[in-house]
Specification:
7-stranded mixed β-sheet; alpha/beta; Aldehyde Dehydrogenase, Chain A, domain 1; 2 domains; 15 helices
């Protein structure tokens, strides 16, 4: 069998079997030029489409996603290993996103009054143009649509450059837009190399850029967007603290910590990665957490009962194992798992590391896989200090029965989101994004719908 080069093709390998799913040849400069031209043409028509009609198009997209939900979910599972039940949940979440913005988005784009006397000045929200979106593999359609839907509703067009291993999902998503009746150019899919991305960022037809990915990718994309003087949104990594204080409901905290850490096989930017537990309850929490984690079903992601599937790529599993072994060598205690699974597939054992300190690898770095680190805090103030001792600042979770203390934590946590007595999540009703090396800019809620808008002042009869 002829080996296809990843230099010339986007290669999708089934992480469960190691077999090739598909190989998509990268598009050349002429194809990139044609896609950008279609996006500009699409923008010229889409921005003039009445807002009510754009909202109705989102309802049609929700229907198209549901009509093809099983095929999309199966593609997600085959391409990146997400357990099938979670993949179906991702599709439904996207459909609900479309419907939510169709209902609530138009009001967010209405002209906004100002404090100018007699109401003669207002702020109006205008679309910028074609938006280039460089997206990751871990939520192949949610990551795309949570940025695309509000931007499209505002009248922009969207040009998706997806991760090479999930191009099948990208093309199914494009087909859903077509079935929903979107015109050519409104939602484009690019299959290009890093050089093609750079060319697109520099091209004057691209108005702005958004990336969800690693810090390294954020530095590269952000610097290129800056050089081109283009607005960009960066949603990068996270090493999110999950804080459990002495007065917390431990059973609820454990339940949330297990879901928050191991959903999507732990491959979530806002996952509960550092479990920071106050000394008075750390032993009880650890015992309950390890017991619950050990019960998680690991196996074929196409099996309905599977909760943890294979990691998306072989190289990511190797990196994760190196981080785990480094942390153990630094003095952490292995409480569960701690190794690559034997046999075929990119499986890694559900792992719990205890006695982790702030000098260790799993505290300082982001572990993107099914590994939890338990850190003991002397008291609540120490827990807060540990939580903020990170180069990342995406989300944080606090479990406590003391509402005043919870609010104090929210006041002082250096993160884009704080979740009190509930694990972190992205939801269209609230904004999502980070600070520090977790990036900048916001998705979802009214922030997301206005992020790629020109907030234009219209002042009549100024004297």
């Amino acid at each position: 069998m002829t080996r296809i080069s990843s230099q010339t093709h986007a290669i999708s390998l089934n992480p469960t079997t190691g077999e090739q799913v598909a190989a998509y040849p990268y598009e050349d400069a002429a194809a990139l030029d044609a896609a950008l031209e279609r996006s500009v043409s699409g923008f010229n028509g889409w921005k003039r489409t009445p807002l009510a009609a754009r909202a109705q198009a989102m309802v049609a997209l929700a229907s198209a996603l549901r009509d093809n939900a099983e095929a999309i979910a199966r593609m997600i599972t085959v391409e990146m290993g997400k357990p099938i039940a979670q993949a179906r949940g991702e599709v439904e979440k996207c459909a609900l996103l479309c419907e939510w913005y169709a209902e609530h988005g138009p009001a967010m784009l209405a002209a906004e009054p100002t404090l100018v006397q007699n109401g003669s000045a207002r702020i109006e929200y205008r679309p910028l143009g074609p938006i280039l979106a460089v997206m990751p593999w871990n939520f192949p359609i949610w990551q795309v649509l949570r940025g695309a839907v509000p931007a499209l509703l505002a009248g922009n067009t969207y040009v998706l450059k997806h991760a090479p291993n999930v191009m099948g999902s990208a093309y199914l998503l494009r087909e859903a837009f077509r079935r929903a009746g979107f015109a050519d150019g409104v939602f484009e899919v690019l299959n290009v190399t890093a050089d093609g991305v750079s060319s697109a960022i520099a091209d004057p037809r691209i108005a702005a850029v958004t990336l969800t990915g690693s810090v390294r990718a954020g530095i590269a994309i952000g610097s290129q967007a800056g050089a081109a003087l283009k607005k960009c949104v960066l949603e990068l990594g996270g090493s999110d603290p999950f804080i459990v204080l002495n007065d917390a409901d431990l059973d609820e905290a454990v339940k949330a910590a297990v879901i928050g850490r191991y959903q999507n096989t732990g491959q979530v930017c806002a996952a509960a990665k550092r479990l920071i537990v106050e000394a008075g309850v750390v032993d009880a929490f650890t015992r309950k957490f390890v017991e619950a984690t050990a019960k998680l079903q690991v196996g074929d992601p196409l099996a309905e009962q599977t909760y943890i599937g294979p990691m998306a790529r072989y190289d990511l599993r190797e990196e994760l194992d190196q981080q785990v072994q480094a942390t153990l060598a630094e003095g952490a205690t292995l409480l569960l798992g701690g190794a690559k699974s034997e046999g075929v597939g990119n499986y890694y054992q559900a792992t719990v590391l205890g006695n982790v300190t702030e000098q260790m690898t799993s505290f300082k770095q982001e572990l993107f896989g099914p590994v939890a680190s338990i850190i003991t805090a002397r008291d609540a103030r120490h827990a807060l200090a540990l939580a903020n001792d990170s180069e990342f600042g995406l989300t944080a979770t606090v479990y406590t029965a003391n509402a005043a203390q919870a609010q104090q934590f929210a006041d002082e946590l250096e993160t884009g989101g704080v979740f009190i007595n509930g694990y972190s999540a992205s939801d269209p009703r609230v904004t999502f994004g980070g600070v520090k090396k977790s990036g900048f800019g916001r998705e979802l809620s009214h922030f997301g719908v206005r992020e790629f808008c020109n907030a234009q002042t219209v002042w009549v009869d100024r004297h």
